[in-house]
Amino acid sequence: MFPYNRHRRLRKNEAVRSLVRETSLTPNDFVLPIFVAEGKDVKEEIKSMPGIYRHSLDLTVNEVKEIWNLGIKAVNVYVKVNADLKDNTGKEAWNADGLMQQTIKAIKDAVPEMIIMPDVALDPYSIYGHDGIIGNGKILNDETNEALVKMSISHAEAGADIIAPSDMMDGRVGAIREALEENGFPDVGIISYAAKYASSFYGPFRDALDSAPVDIENIPRDKKTYQMDYHNALEALREVEADIMEGADIVMVKPGMAYLDIVRLVKDNYNIPVSVFQVSGEYAMIKAASANGWLDHDKVMLESLTAFKRAGADMIFTYFSKEAARLLS
Ligand code: PBG
Fold it and tell me: Active site at which residues (predicted)?
């Protein structure tokens, strides 16, 4: 008790603070989401995500080399699909010569050790901007799973290391795992978006891929029939448990900053690597406030990333990966 207990003894300078520090942040913790567009020599900045670009494949390869040299070991790949390739089935998603498949091959050629995590969900390929196939006024679960399986196998054939299903259909992890085994890809892993919430923080991302849900009769312009309700925490445990039973290697909580309680809950309840996604809207908030001089960009960035580690995340998907890795090295 005071005065014998003085917490400030262990805070008196940086040396002692660093001795008692409970968490640390390194570039090994980061996964960088990247956006790939058709064309050559294309570098388009995403308006609501300053500093983040859609690159054509040629420039993506240079990017990935740079990222690797910064100490970042994994990329989460998204492609912007041309409007004329979109339909309700999402079939461009498993085109062996599609932009995603070409990107996976090109990255593997250029930086063989880079861990490639391609996004698996139909939204960039859907005329409706939904993560699944639409029929009978609904997002069809089991039909969508069949599409996601074809998509995942085509990613594995192209050389993906860890498939990243972000769609929130029920049973898709098991279906993908089984298909990977049957098709000769026992070593391809699955990072499942287990606790992915229906969030308004995804806005800028949907600008990046031009993939926002559109107005269709009887179907709301949101993803609340498949992504989780943000009022719920315990439900995340059921989602995580199901994905572990179905064969997930890593589970994800998404978004990040407003969901640190969920990260901790999952970490405390399961012995599986936990990832967290600091999403586009979180990135945009920090960028906008710092551009106005209202926040110190670098300090807020590192504080937010460290908070994920403190909450129990083993890895962080973040658009800040490059900037943070530069600062940390
Ligand atoms: C879609 C997908 C989304 C994100 C990753 N994959 C958006 C959504 O669910 O609508 C969001 C990423 C971000 O906001 O940074 N399957």
Answer: 196, 254
Q: Which amino acid would we find at residue 305?
A: L
Query: Does residue 15 belong to any structural domain of this protein?
Result: no
User: Is residue 82 within 8 Å of residue 54, measured between CB atoms?
Assistant: no
| CA proximity to 31, closest of 88, 124, 106, 116 | 116
Which ranges in 32-80 belong to alpha helices (H)? 57-69
Catalytic residue among 73, 80, 86, 196: 196
Rounded Cα gap, residues 297 and 286, in angstroms: 7
Q: Which domain holds residue 39?
A: 26-328
Residues in the chain, how many?
329
Mutational test site, ligand 1, from 131, 280, 321, max ligand atoms within 8 Å of CB: 131
> Tokens 């960039």, residue?
124
| CATH label of the domain that carries residue 68 | 3.20.20.70
Between 45-54, 100-109, 201-210, 223-232, the lowest mean confidence (pLDDT) is in 201-210
Query: How far apart (Å, rounded) are the C-alpha atoms in residues 141 and 133?
Result: 8
Distance from Cα 125 to the centre of ligand 1, integer Å: 13
Percent of the chain at pLDDT exceeding 70: 100
Determine if the pTM surpasses 0.95. Answer: yes
Overall domain count for the chain: 1
Quote the crossing angle between the two packed helices 260-269 and 234-246, to the nearest 10°.
Answer: 50
